[in-house]
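re: ur question from yesterday

yeah so i grabbed the chain u mentioned. its 96 aa long if i counted rite. heres the sequnce exactly as i have it in my notes:
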Amino acid sequence: MMAENSRLHAVVEGTVQGVGFRQFVVMTAYELDLNGWVRNTYEGNVEVVAEGRSEVLDMLLSALHRGPRHAYVTNVRFEYESATAEFDSFTVRSTV
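ran it thru and got these structure tokens back, copy pasting raw so excuse formatting
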């Protein structure tokens, strides 16, 4: 029996733009076999939507708190939602 997928919606705050954060998220999601997207926000944050097994999403959330080497994460606002299975890969979206 397959575990049911969940969706993680997270907003990462701090020094997270211009430090390779989106590429860090893409690589981490790829390694964890997650689908979804990442984008910068005009407020200076990074927004992430990812779908996969709950325990794997927890691993991504842990990575978001850490970030790439030059990032300084001050806060991660997040919530778990129901998965929609609308994604077939993990992509970078335009800033919103």
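noticed a couple things. The first helix runs from residue 21 to 31. also Helices lie at 21-31, 54-66.
anyway ttyl
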